[in-house]
Amino acid sequence: MPPIVSVKDLTKTYPGGFTALSGVSLDIEEGEIIALLGPNGAGKTTLISAICGITMPSGGTIEVGGHDVVRDYRRARDLIGLVPQEIALEPFSTVWNNVRFTRGLFDRPRDDAYLEGLLRDLSLWDKRDAKVMELSGGMKRRVLIAKALSHGPRVLFLDEPTAGVDVELRKDMWRVVERLREEGVTIILTTHYIEEAEAIADRIGVISRGRIMLVERTEELMRRLGKKELRIELSEPVGPLPDGLRRDGLERAADGQALIYTYDTHAERTGITALLADLQASGLQLADLSTSNSSLEEIFVGLVKEDGQ
After folding, report:
1. Which CATH architecture has domain 5-223?
2. Rounded distance, CA 296 to CA 224, Å?
3. Integer Cα distance of 82 and 189 in angstroms
4. What pLDDT sits at residue 266?
5. Which helix (H) or strand (E) element contains residue 212?
6. Locate the ABC transporter domain: which residues (predicted)?
7. What angle do CA 66, 104, 29 make, to 5 degrees?
8. How many CB atoms lie within 10 A of CB 139?
9. What is residue 174's predicted lDDT score, i.e. its pLDDT?
10. Which regions of the chain are under pLDDT 50?
């Protein structure tokens, strides 16, 4: 089955000469959730804008559902729902009219039951007759999400959908995302809440300086780049490491009360057995041992640092 979104050698250079995207290629399969991570200015929003037909590419091609977003804009855009970062709503219109109007723009037949379900999912039903100008920022964000889903898109873009909003909205948002996943909707999101990407995304894409650094399944990325850390609590603090303990991956905690050993769980040998033997030989007394895995945030920060950001 061909990808629902296909980006080939996409570039975007602005009139002043700034290149926001450079040779980006990305295939997104139907029904998957992919999270795009990258520092501010990395090109995430520009990429989404180009796919949605908001920004004209300087080069390359983009297809959504087999439709070129430039040559066949209407058909491509008809498949897309977009929740932008910026809140832009008709302030004097009611929540209900805002959402119903957007559905009409996509030439969908009237379906009040469907829209009611959307508003209930997003805890907006009680606010349906309120004017947008009367709503809180979080409620306005919910209206944006309802508008993006009003025409039943096959591809949904969420550009920082939960940035600066309350915990309740975040829970509502991810509940809706799970339901959409079950219905086969493809979801592409950008987020600064990296733990959310780790929890919900099938694949993770990392963008830096307008280039895709990698796109991998979340669990494979964690396994390939994730490290495990062994923390050795000592009965008494230690000063400089004894010569017999100096090795790659072993560090002394700032207070000297613990030693921290970082290792690859998939390596042929972790070196833990030898380390513990050397600890015993050195005369240091162990009080406790604990292990932890690298988080996606740590992996992301490491990748961006390697790219010079």
Report:
1. 3-Layer(aba) Sandwich (3.40)
2. 11
3. 10
4. 64
5. strand 211-217
6. 5-234
7. 25
8. 19
9. 82
10. none
